[in-house]
Amino acid sequence: MKKCPVCEKGELIQANDIVSEIEGHHFVEKGERCNNCGEEFINEKEGQGIIDAAKRLGIWGATMKLHRKLSKSARGTVLRIPSDVEKEMNLKGSENILISRIGKNKILIEIEE
Ligand SMILES: [Zn+2]
Prior knowledge:
Elements: E1 12-22, E2 25-34, E3 40-42, H1 44-56, E4 64-66, E5 71-73, E6 76-78, H2 83-88, E7 97-102, E8 106-111
This protein binds zinc ion (ZN).
The site of zinc ion has 8 residues, from loops.
């Protein structure tokens, strides 16, 4: 059994219905989902397939929406940045960020240079 690296409580269960959305295009991928916190993990091969498909459609680099679940820690609500975004933006995890609330249900996160 694989333990979830996010909540460290749940187990990772095989899932074939993980949805990513890029510019209104939905991609369904195989991966694993935590049975406790709901965090989803796409295997690298599947992730690469989506990137290739997005490039073919000419939408790669466009606004990419990834469905993620917030989780709760003792210090508050936690949002994990998807690893592909982290890699592409070369995030080190120590950046200062600006968080703005936009309207009713949007949050904008800006990396301070
Ligand atoms: Zn978990």
